[in-house]
Request: fold
Amino acid sequence: MEMEELCRELPKIELHAHLNGSVRDSTLLELAKVLGEQGAIDFSEVEGLIKRRGRSLKECFRLFDIYHKITTDHATVTRITQEVVEDFAAENVVYLELRTTPKQNKAKEMTKRSYVEAVIDGLTAVDSVEVAFLPSTVNARNLTNFLPNEVTYNQTQRKKIFVRLLLSIDRRETTAAAMETVNLALEMKDKGVIGIDLSGNPEVGEWQTFLPALQYAKQKGLQVTLHCGEVRNNREIHSMLDFYPQRIGHACYLEEEHWEKLKVSKIPVEICLTSNLRTERITSFKEHHFADLYKAKHPVSLCTDDVGLFSTTLSNEYYLAASTFEFNKEQVYQLSRNVIEFVFADDEVKRTLAEIYDAAERRFIL
Ligand SMILES: CNc1ncnc2c1ncn2[C@@H]1O[C@H](COP(=O)(O)O)[C@@H](O)[C@H]1O
Ligand SMILES: [Zn+2]
Reply:
């Protein structure tokens, strides 16, 4: 079987996907058209921006502001969540941690809580696949749904996917707003929310602003992942590593002493190859720091970041790694399987994921 096809068949775990960055272009254009007709936005301008290939870091954040105008009402949030989960499941993602920034919008009578509820409604609305998003302690039935003989990549059976939510703090937010998001995550722990992410334009905001909320999250048992080193920022990167989050994303601009600290810490790194290339964090896949971390056996997971914004898929990210670094199918399988260890869900879920990989093993290991 060709590597590209294998990467699609491979059971995969996605740990770093932003909801609004993962919306289908077709959905964005459809929604934008309606808003254009209502005179709320200039459709042709938005269409041009969505279709343009340019995705520098600055352009990404300009686009996100536009995306948010298009997607932020309850029904749309529910719709995009449903579609995003269906798209990941369709390419054999068996476990998805989906992150999103709870947003308040008075004009839409939206609170951070009602925003997250709309996301959860989207998980419930999925019908092309079975979705398990509640913790094992809340819904033991989840587990019987995932018997290994019913593995997801078998095309003849209904696909299944575990989903967990991370609530993102945007770097534009205040300490109080960040705290509100953490409190919301705590209140919604039984509904599939499992942790906190710090993201947003890395040129904006100060690490110290978010630290109290992140420390509180950690104390209260939420899992924390940070966008770390997406731009050069020596002090912030040191402080983030000292905070000792459960995972970090990107790690593009680490310097020698950061790498040493990271490798000793064994903090897993969410690697976003296409995102880093398109936002001009790297100039080629070959020179990506993934290569060094992989060689050092540091825990890494391939992720998409924003499948919509960057026109990629998780299967494509595995294929890119395999073709750039000349992995054989066993190495690709192991790369994907190793991610089980650092998913944020409980051990029951990890055990089930291991069974799913066991059942797929013979297709990848001779
Ligand atoms: C490209 N690299 C990136 N770096 C930092 N933050 C990013 C990002 N890509 C996405 N986001 C964060 O995710 C939000 C969109 O999804 P949600 O509205 O939360 O669902 C963006 O506004 C930004 O805060
Ligand atoms: Zn990200």
Summary: Residues 18-21, 60, 64, 100-101, 168, 170, 199-200, 227, 230, 275, 279, 305-306 surround N6-methyladenosine-5'-monophosphate (ligand 1) (CB under 6 Å). Residues 136 and 348 are 7 Å apart (CA to CA). The beta strands are 12-18, 93-100, 130-132, 160-170, 193-199, 223-228, 247-250, 269-271, 300-302. Confidence is low (pLDDT under 50) at residues 147-154.
